[in-house]
Predict the structure.
Amino acid sequence: MHNALVNRPEFQVVFPFWRTPWNIAVRAIERTPGLNILSKTARARFASKDPNQRAQAIGNVALGGLLYGAAVSYIIDGSITGGGPADPDLNRIWRNAGNQPYSIKLPSGKWVSYNRLDPIMLPFVFLSTVYENAWKFNDNREELDDIVGAGLLAFTKALGDRTYMSGMRIIMDGLQASKTNNLDLLERTGGQLAIGAIPSVIMQQYEMGQEVGLYGGAEGFREAINFTEKITRKLAPVTGYAAIKHNWLTGEPIASPFGYNTGIPVTSDQPDPVLMELVRMGRSIDPPDTKIGNVELDGYQYAELNRLIGSTEIQGLKLRDALEQFMMDNSAGDLSGIQGKYDFDPNRVYNQNHDDFRIKGVKNIIRIYKDLGRKLLMRDNPDLMEAHIQDRTNSAYVGAGYEQVFDLNQ
């Protein structure tokens, strides 16, 4: 593979570093008890007459066993996170609930990321992510096939989250798009290549400069919906793009944790029990749509919609507070439309095939705040309101058997 990249330098745009991921994968295999028999080098070392070679082979296995044992200990103790749920929408809620992926909880209560400490920490990466998806967030623990399937999906996610595997992920997406003639996926793959060609240091030095007062403007992560916005987001120091992401469940901006630009972020945030309940409910709870009807929102509009949903008060309560009242003391009955004892249990496992009254109540509350957030957004954006009216007009014409009269999202 290395020789192929040398002979075809254009491929180095996708694989700028090949030896790094390859060497990391080899080291991880050599240190995994049982899996190390797949390594020709490891087998040769074990069979070698050189005591130093055998000692290195035994040392690798011993280190691997120690690391896997430590990872299991952290999992049992609940003081480690993996990549979170494999489902993208559910993963977003999980992060909004205050979870930092691929992190270990210190005795001080702070969560420190181990995400950039490969290959030594790969056992933590894979075991924690597989545990989360195959067991912790799995609503079908009685079916072995489902557990194994969820575990394999989690392993794939953890592997795809490695920054040095991004080129491989893009290539696989491109091949899949070509095979299925999926033009949207093919366009997205091309966009990822273009965005990846922009040096990250541009944004990193800008955000680090903001922390010490060198730059003005908003801090935190930025919302981007379309390809152009994703380009301008990565060039924020030049473009001034500032569609700050907001947690749609609280309305608060999502700020970069301390140390984010070093690759080892540290946070004191603790998982919110109310929002973690939404994670346990699984795909029953969806984040806000990037469209209102058939009208596509831009990054600024979507960021504002998330802020409005989480920060607007109804009956004196913001969304997160209304959910807490419903879950903890059943006093949000007017909003949830549900009467009954919620009986909050942080260990409850929801079956998505069962229509639980708790999920119904939570969905009713969230729907009310989403509807109000969309109305407020359109009230403050005349162009968006006009596009929404045109969309409704199109629907009426199509429903009556005519062609739509307005072209949206131009």
